[in-house]
Amino acid sequence: MIYQVAPFCPACHFGILVFPDLLLKDGAIYLSLDNIPLLTTLFIAPIVIRAKSLGAATICGGTVFYILQEWL
Q1: 1 strand-pairing partners
Q2: Exposure string over 25-46, b if 16+ CB within 10 A, otherwise e
Q3: pTM: predicted TM-score of the whole model, two decimal places
Q4: Quick one: the chain helix, strand, coil %, rounded to 5?
């Protein structure tokens, strides 16, 4: 059973580190149009899923984050 679960451990650790920064502010869930990191994640998710490239994710994510930060 451990060998079936082991491939998911890196993704779980990544989620534990990233999701609090995306979804929490002052200890409460922060789902708003002012939440730039969450909006960036939602915008680039289809690109990342389709491209399956860390480079594309980094470049697209940084670009979208910068644009949203300047416009919002």
Answers
A1: none
A2: eeeeeeeeeebbbbbbbebbee
A3: 0.69
A4: 80, 5, 15
| Amino acid identity at 4 | Q
Distance in Å from the first CA to the final CA of the chain: 47
- Res 37: pLDDT: 87
Q: What is the per-residue pLDDT across 2-46, written as a single tens digit (0 to 9) for each? A: 667 667 677 677 777 778 878 888 888 888 888 888 888 888 889
The neighbouring-strand residues paired with 25 are: 28
CA 10 to CA 38: how far, in whole Å?
A: 21
Structure tokens at 68: 């949203």
E strands, the chain, where?
24-25, 28-29
